[in-house]
Amino acid sequence: MAASFANQKHILAVRNGVIAAVPLTIVGGISLIMAFPPIDPTRVNDNPNIFTQMLLVWHSWASANMATILAPFNMTMGIMALFVAMAVGYNLSISYKMNPLSGAMTAAATFLLVAAPSQSVVVLSKINDSMGYPLISKLGQDALPLKFMDAKGMFTAILVGLLVV
């Protein structure tokens, strides 16, 4: 009974969709490890050994390049739900003998509509004290909120990937 449940089209699509995201989690995890070396410089004694010195050099390098090191983390883990929605839609389309690219793109677009509808934002550095509301509103730009694009949106991504196809 468990084998027939595990071989059901939708369960297989969810499993394969989440498995497809594993390489992204590995890349994000490696960049996170590189950004935060396992040492606290405030707790190092006056005469550190060679290993501690290497960790201190790593810590200073990571502190100086934090934004660059965390970019892969933000681009993988930060939008993980979007990748999962695409992968679930892709895999379910294959099982229904549909065009898999269409299933993936439709799932991604629908997930963006559901979880991250476009909003108008104004960059604070462009505003000065002499501007009124009409001038500030003209500075608005479209942006996608990323609040539910990470693990918080994973369940929604799976549902959208399944329902869209």
Detail the topology: elements first, then pairings.
Elements: H1 2-6, H2 9-20, H3 22-35, H4 50-64, H5 66-76, H6 80-95, H7 100-115, E1 119-121, H8 133-138, E2 141-143, H9 154-164
Helix pairs in contact: 2-6, 3-5, 6-7, 6-9, 7-9
Descriptive account of the structure:
It is flat and about 65 Å long. By secondary structure, it is mainly alpha-helical. It has helices at about 1-5, 10-20, 20-35, 50-65, 65-75, 80-95, 100-115, 135-140, 155-165; strands at about 120, 140-145. The protein contains 9 helices and 2 strands. The longest helix is centred in the middle third of the chain and has 16 residues, at about 80-95.
What would the keywords be for this entry?
two-stranded antiparallel sheet; 2 strands; mainly alpha; 64% helix; 165 residues; flat; 9 helices
Measure the end-to-end span. Answer: 26 Å
What's the gyration radius in Å? 22 Å
Helix-strand makeup class? mainly alpha
Q: Could you list the spans in which at least 5 consecutive residues all have pLDDT below 50?
A: none
The average pLDDT score comes to: 89
> So what's the overall shape?
flat
Helix content: 55-70%
Q: What does the largest sheet look like?
A: 2 strands, antiparallel
Proportion in β-strands:
under 5%
Give the strand line-up of the largest sheet. Answer: 1-2
Q: How many strands appear in the DSSP assignment?
A: 2
**Helix count, per DSSP?**
9
Order of helices and strands: HHHHHHHEHEH
